[in-house]
Amino acid sequence: MKLTIKYFGLLAEITKCNEEQIEFSGNLIVELLDTIFLKYPTLKEKDFQIAQNQILATKETEVLATEIALLPPFAGG
Amino acid sequence: MDRYNRHIILSEIGQEGQNKISNAKVLVVGAGGLGCPVLQYLTAAGVGTIGIIDFDIVSISNLQRQVLFGISFLGQNKALAAKQRLQDLNNTIKINAYPEKLTHKNALTFFKNYDIIVDGTDNFATRYLINDASVIINKTLVYGGIYKFEGQVSVFNYQNGPSYRCLFPTPPKEGAIPNCSEIGVLGVLPGIIGSMQANEVLKIILGLGNVLSGKLLCFNALTTQTTTLIVNKSENEINKILSNRDSFQETKEEFGCNFSPPEISIEKAFQKSNVQFVDVREHHELPKIEALNPTQIPLSEFENNLDKIDLEKEKIIFCQVGIRSKTSVSILQKHNINNSYSVKEGALEIVAYMKQLQKQY
Fold it and tell me: Given an 8 Å threshold on Cβ–Cβ distance, is B229 in contact with A10?
């Protein structure tokens, strides 16, 4: 299945794009992350949350939606 | 009242709504990029009691985005400077300026006097502290965070809703996420995000519209896109915070720069030998104390001139009243430069003390 992955904040700087399409054939978010980390190894070190179709998910959540967002916390003010 | 006419003629607000605004008490933590627009709009709107906490001082690099300040405020404490500007904007409201650092020890005392807390800070240690204190004392928290060209806004602990820890359970590793001073920020971005925070505050006070609770709004200034994510409450995270309630005030501050900087009296300072005196007042401030041969580094330029600090000597730092000198010691601690003391008193007291010494001998 083709997924749209959205990257925010410093994650988008690592991937050099705000969003992209990724082909994914697994079941869980954790498997999807492995696929993404293979492409961008430095993402592995970063703190972020994952949302699918705008709802926060955990690593064990099943991938059901086609839009996944990776969201880091922002320190600045 | 003429001042609030444009609010009052809105049928959704009216005199009744304006009275709610006048009776509201809002505490803004941090008078920086986010805090300035929040404070400006809440003051203009007539929020009856506004508190401002900030230990930092106004420096020239702040003026690109911190719109309450001008060059006449350089070197002054931000909470006090903001109060001065805001009281001119609206002299009918009460503004409490607290020129100090928010800590686990003082947070609950500050928070209990206000209805709504606004997070305008620039570091994770304080963000988690604000969140946990808000949960413990059951106050609504209006959150904003920025990164270069992007911002986040949400409302936490609103009518039993989720908290910041339900979104991000634990703080990232120190230094993992840079802040504005390290990496830069588009000046107008905190203006947009801070205005959104002010909007949430007013909606909460007025009971109007849909409050951004259980949702995180993400804004990208370059694409002008907003994405709203759903944040669910985690009872587990909330319970963890509440279970630490009794020991909260004894919690050690997470980062070195949050420790209260060491202070010294003039008398004790003069008993030391092999010291470097540092005057952190701006160049125009008087009286000069040439007899001490102080190194002059105005606080507004302090962090860029750390090479002038003598690492071999004990540092005795003074200013006009003893606030900026404390900030300077915190900055030194942040850079792992220890053996520095902030003189409790100010320049005038130092001059008086030296005169007294001369009389004795």
Answer: no
d(CA B64, CA B151) in angstroms, rounded, equals: 17
Question: At CB < 8 Å, which residues of chain A contact B?
Answer: 6, 8-10, 18, 45-47, 49, 51, 54-56, 69, 71-77
Chain A contact for B153 (CB, 8 A cutoff): no
| CA atoms within a 13 Å half-sphere pointing along the CA-CB vector of B241 | 24
- What Å distances lie between residue B72 and A71, B56, B63, CA to CA? 40, 16, 11
Q: Which residues contact A74 (CB under 8 A, 6 or more apart)?
A: A9, B145, B146, B147, B150, B151, B152, B177
Measured between beta carbons, the chain B residues lying within 8 angstroms of A19 are none
Task: Identify all chain B residues contacting A18, using CB atoms and an 8 Å cutoff.
Answer: 220, 223
Residues of B with Cβ-Cβ distance to A8 under 8 angstroms: 150, 218, 220, 227
Has this prediction a pTM greater than 0.80? no
Chain B residues whose CB is inside 8 A of the A69 CB are: 227, 229
Residue by residue, pLDDT tens for chain B (361 residues) are 799 999 999 999 999 999 999 999 999 999 999 999 999 999 999 999 999 999 999 999 999 999 999 999 999 999 999 999 999 999 999 999 999 999 999 999 999 999 999 999 999 999 999 999 999 999 999 999 999 999 999 999 999 999 999 999 998 876 677 776 778 999 999 999 999 999 999 999 999 999 999 999 999 999 999 999 999 999 999 999 999 899 999 887 765 444 567 888 898 899 888 899 999 998 888 999 999 999 999 988 888 888 899 888 889 999 998 888 988 988 887 666 778 899 998 999 999 999 988 887 7
Residue B104 CB partners (closer than 8 Å, separation 6+): B129, B133, B248, B249, B250, B251, B252, B253
Please tell me which residue of chain A has the smallest CA distance to B32. Answer: A77
